[in-house]
Design a protein that fits this description.
Organism: Scheffersomyces spartinae
Largest sheet: 6 strands, antiparallel
Keywords: Membrane, Transmembrane, Transmembrane helix
Strand content: 25-35%
CATH superfamily of the largest domain: Immunoglobulins
Radius of gyration: 30 Å
Protein name: ER membrane protein complex subunit 7 beta-sandwich domain-containing protein
Number of domains: 2
């Protein structure tokens, strides 16, 4: 079960600044991944934090914040209005990835429901000075079996065929036509026998 983000009450007197913090960070070396990723230990660089201005329809002006070495991020100088915050990571799953942000009179309120349904939302109108976003689990990546087969074929002596789409199609069609009589013998022996008789008849006609 995903937890809920913890809201710390407070007000911002010197301008609307949205401060966020990633919590429950796994210890270094605890995250395993089969993906070849650059900067493998710099998990912060693979977290995207985007804030969309919902008043700038239809373009939805986007601001981007970087997660620093202390796992915090900041959006300064927010004007009054509605925003949507989206947080995503290559390595981690968060308790919530989407938040509706409401700024009025230098005060920030966060709604965990992206639909912002005030009749169903239990976190309505909570002012914050720090938004805690909790890591609930790490993402696991598994090698796709089809990808391994494809690489094996490309590295085989027939690899030049599979590198070219036209050659691949012709190779597959030739292989299907060559194997069809044998496969048909298992599926429908009677039909296979009739086709062999027809082939013999055509051969005799050609010999005459």
């Amino acid at each position: 079960m995903f937890g809920k983000a913890r809201m710390h009450r407070g007000s911002l007197a010197l301008g609307a600044v949205l401060n966020g913090r990633i919590t429950h960070v796994p210890e270094e070396g605890a995250v395993e991944s089969s993906m070849p990723i650059l900067n493998v230990n710099n998990y912060q660089s693979r977290i995207t934090v985007n804030l969309y201005d919902l008043q700038s329809r239809p373009t939805y002006y986007k601001q981007v914040a970087l997660v620093d070495e202390n796992w915090t991020f900041k959006f300064p100088e927010l004007s009054d209005g509605d925003y949507e915050l989206i947080v995503q990571s290559v390595d981690f799953v968060f308790n919530e990835e989407r938040y509706r942000i409401y700024v009025i009179n230098d005060n920030i309120k966060v709604y965990e429901d992206p639909l912002w349904d005030e009749h169903r939302n239990s976190t309505i109108g909570k002012s914050i000075d720090i938004l805690d976003i909790e890591i609930t689990e790490t993402k696991q990546y598994f090698e796709h079996a089809l990808g391994s087969i494809h690489e094996m074929l490309l590295n085989s002596p027939l690899g030049f065929i599979f590198e070219n789409r036209a050659y691949t199609i012709m190779f597959v069609l030739t292989l299907v036509l060559a194997l069809f009589p044998y496969v048909l013998g298992f599926i429908n022996p009677e039909l296979a026998a009739e086709m062999r008789e027809i082939q013999r008849g055509n051969t005799k006609v050609l010999e005459k």
